[in-house]
Amino acid sequence: MDTSIYVLGLVIFLALAFDFINGFHDTANAIATSVSTRALTPRTAIIMAASMNFIGALLFTGVAKKIGGSITDPAMLDNGIEIVIATLIAAIIWNLVTWWFGIPSSSSHALIGSLAGAVYVGAGSDYIKWGGFKDIVLGLVLSPLIAFAIGYVVMTILKWIFAKRSPHTVNKGFRSMQIITAAFQAFTHGTNDAQKAMGIITFALVTSGKLDTMEVPLWVKISAATAMALGTSVGGWKIIKTMGTKIFKIEPINGFAADISAASVIFSATLLHLPVSTTHAITSAILGVGSAKRFSAVKWGVAGRIIVTWFITIPISAVLAGLIFKIFF
User: Fold this and answer.
1) Distance between CA 98 and CA 92 in Å, rounded?
2) Which of 9, 40, 93, 264 is the least buried, fewest Cβ under 10 Å from its Cβ?
3) Mind listing the pLDDT tens digit for each residue in 27-63?
4) Nearest CA to 237 among 245, 225, 229, 248?
5) What would the DSSP string read from start to end of 47-99?
6) How far is residue 29's CA from residue 6's CA, in Å, rounded to a whole number?
């Protein structure tokens, strides 16, 4: 075995580490609302989320191909392995920093920004497919706006339908329904987020000459799905606390509305082969639902800090990946 095999092994390890961290970083996306309303116990919620993440990750590959081929052409890079290493290290660092401070930032933004920054420094701006990059960023920007709007509309409709019902009876019914929506949310998380690691591994295999196309091998699917599920099983309690309690007081009917709204946006994006941020989708849906419930009930200061993080993640990740490439390669 030559050195390149060991280097490729390092890339695969880093990609799966990113996927594992993504799992516990984004666990809150699927279960924060159901845990905060006591629809599910934390242990049950995490086991369910891990299982549904694994299933979702195995069933789709369109986003993986988009991630791996829309920002740059891996076959055209002479130093593609080094670029991938810098990308993954930068994305992992940013994910850990935001997890430590309990900020629900986007793993997707971190990965996209890091890859663009590493390609820009490592190969030059001519090697970035700016059209593909803009399409991905546009999807990342529009998806939270759509999730906010859907969350607002869904909650408004539910308020109108159940206006004359007892709040206790309504919430008791929706607490049970939250189990279904939380499972759907976890499934859609797997269909979109786990594919990002698949895409990066496949990107590395193509740039190293081990594969000719961006078709994702079965072992890559299984590895990424397993890493995501294991990460999910660890849980991300700091972010769960932020998502479930600090934006506004979530009741079961609100959690149901937020989960179904966010999951619909994420799954639609998966079917369109667009990588979106599950973090942004569910946070925006919660904001939309909270606004429909009562605008003043939303803690807009907390929401503002989250939104600032959304905007700075891509540029910070890009600069960080570029610096890492410069320092080590």
Assistant:
1) 10
2) 9
3) 666 677 777 777 887 778 888 888 888 898 888 888 8
4) 245
5) HHHHHHHHHHHHH--HHHHHHHHHS--GGG-TTHHHHHHHHHHHHHHHHHHHH
6) 35
